[in-house]
């Protein structure tokens, strides 16, 4: 049973259960852990017994604004479900169910607070023993001297001390219950033996040890019949000659002795429950674990599907992002190319215009050159004077200042050289009228 409790605790860590009105924490919180320890110290002794009826409701009231670990809330939810299911199916009296309901809090304190699953397993076995012993119990003030209910309440209070929760303490309480049960059963045996003897004398019959079945009647050593009024009584002995069935209450007091004819009438439809067949906490725990494992498996499948879906969606988004980036890059490249082409065209146009302007200026400059015009040739790093201009050949002959070195240009070559600024025009030479005037002046002077 200890291993099943460990499994239940591990499931509380893995399960993704989100209950309303709770704040869940995703990280370790030392303040919350200290609050939980204080919660166990105080809540188990709560006079209102809120925690004994519902862990979830108690936690919700104790921690209205504290973020708690999911495992804490999940384990409380699991133990609430475990104990509620077991008590409902055990069909115990209300007072016994309310007393045993504290097992949820004790198990919670042992498993979560103390991390002692062995003590928790011992608590569950103690609970099963008490439920079995108290199955047919009904409160009867006349039987207060042998009524185990007062002892049950005292032992429950003994267990509800968080500081004492341990395997040895639970074993001690379990021994107290067994000793009291042994004493009670000893008294029960003496009372029922006297009852059987008196019934045998009254009916003048014999007893027989074999178990029989008449009609739908079944008799067991510790079996109980449920009546329509809700009472339970124990069939303790079958008598023969004439056949009869002796039944007593929980305290061994005679309930009724049924004859064969009465058996068929009164017990034909009375459900019979063997004490050994009562629903155990172990069975409910196993069923609870199986249920949570199915939930966990469903959640894991859902998580896997969600993960795969997220991966696919992420891949799709990545592809869309890459395609968008590629498209944006292509658009940017296209736009950049358009801008570059436009810039190139504009530059070419500007260069062409500039070249045409230079060529036009060069043409104008060359056309203005007259004899005795001076130019500066950058490649020669010297000045030259236009000595001869042959219009028919479109040829220009230049000489240096000594008249020795000669350099010739065709008109197109000179225009190109001027436009490339390889040749700089220093003067355009004298006009024809000026030259004619100087010649005439010289002639006059010489005459």
At a glance:
The chain is of the alpha+beta class.
Describe the oligomeric state of these chains in a short phrase: single chain
What fraction strand?
Answer: 5-15%
Order of helices and strands: HEHHHEHHHHHHEEEEEEEHEHEEEEHEH
Output the structural class. Answer: alpha+beta
Give the biggest beta sheet: 6 strands, antiparallel
Number of strands: 15
* Secondary structure tally, helices: 14
End-to-end Cα distance, whole Å, is: 152 Å
| Low-pLDDT stretches | 209-222
Query: Looking at the structure, what is the overall shape?
Result: rod-shaped
What do you see in this structure?
The chain is α+β, with helices and mostly antiparallel strands. Helix content is 59%, strand content 14%. Among the domains are: 1-165, no CATH class; 369-435, SH3 type barrels, CATH 2.30.30. The strands form four sheets. Strands 3, 6, 7, 8, 9 and 10 form a six-stranded antiparallel sheet that branches. A five-stranded antiparallel sheet has the order 14-13-12-11-15, with helices on one face. Strands 1-2 form a two-stranded parallel ribbon. Strand 13 (395-399) and strand 14 (406-410) form a beta hairpin. The longest helix has 88 residues, at 281-368. The chain is rod-shaped and about 195 Å long.
